[in-house]
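Lay summary. Proteins are chains of building blocks that fold into shapes, and those shapes determine what they do. In this project we predict the shape from the chain. Here is one chain we studied, written as its sequence of building blocks.
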Amino acid sequence: MRRHDRGESGTTIVEIAVGLAVGTVLVAGILILVEQAQKTYMHSSEVTDLQQNVRVGMDRVTHIIQAAGVNPTNDNWGGALGTNDPAFTAFREAGRNCVRVYADLDGDGTVQQNDENVSFHWSTTAGAPLNEQRGTSGGQPDAGMAWVAAGTGPEELARDIAANPGGTAMFQYFTGPNDPLGLPNTELVPPAADPVTCATLAAAQRTRIARVVVTLTGRAVISGQTLTKTVTSDARARNVP
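And here is the predicted shape, written in a compact code that computers can read:
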């Protein structure tokens, strides 16, 4: 019969239990790290999506405003609008939460093509989208005119838009260095915003618009926390006096 020397020993139950406990702690720690990494990734991804949502909307609005007033046929801007001899106006509507821009991009004397008659409108309700519409629908200025394309209906441009910090209007209008009244860099303040229609500046004021400061604020609920992202752009209409 072989006797075990005192120097020889097997793995005891206590040692196995300790090893299992240590392994469990390590695995739990790894799982926590993985979970935290996933949360960080998701948070970063959602923040990036929030920023992209607002910036895409801003880029589109700025692009349209910069083209306002293209007039190759040299029509009389800001005059009375006629059926067959339209007198274009760069800014057909100009409100705090809305704007409609005309631009005869193809020089055919109408605003019927893509991006020639574009409007943007936000209903002022937190979380509502900023909508874009090409063309003019019934009840809107110049609806039914032969030189104006029929509206295609509003489309979501930027989702989940919130009110700007400090109550700043989404669209702010300013005169330029060639203001006909000799008052450059003067802000033209529209009426109070309307959630359905565009409460706009009067025609005499709209013809003085040279640049538009656009401020958009997007929001997102991330990990139970509401985050906002505000971007501002100074959009200068390149084709107005």
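What the prediction tells us: The helical segments are 13-66, 203-206.
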